[in-house]
Amino acid sequence: MKVKTKVDKSKSLSLLERAEVTHKRLNETDKLKYPSNTLDDYYDIIHQLMEALTLLEGVKMKGEGAHCELIDHVCENYNISETEREFLQQMRNYRNRISYEGFSVKSEYIERNESRINGIIIRLSNLVKDKT
Predict the structure, then answer these.
(1) Could you tell me the pLDDT band of residue 14, with boundaries at 50, 70 and 90?
(2) Could you tell me the domains of the chain?
(3) Mean pLDDT for the chain?
(4) What 3-state class would DSSP assign to 54?
(5) What is the pTM of this model?
(6) CA distance linking residue 26 with residue 31, whole number of Å
């Protein structure tokens, strides 16, 4: 459920900083050795950046389906393609399966999608920085 809140620039900048720290740490590890953890970290970074964007709008997603709604909202409002939206929803689904079902991501998934994921991270980071 999308709810209106006050714009929170401070929290948005904090989320941006946390995403940057997590990304830096991730880049200092062997991402292919633990691909499920890598995907979980990448998803967390992207989620923090999307939440940082919505906090600058004065919008918060809450309740069941909040992550799905967050992805749809950000993609719609920041001209992110349908292909990228579907990819982000797939990442969310994999992350949920890792967390709740013990699903394992293969290292090939990371190899195949790492540059795409990093491109999304850079784009979202720049959007947050441009809005602050």
Answers:
(1) very high
(2) 2-131 (1.20.120.330)
(3) 96
(4) helix
(5) 0.96
(6) 7
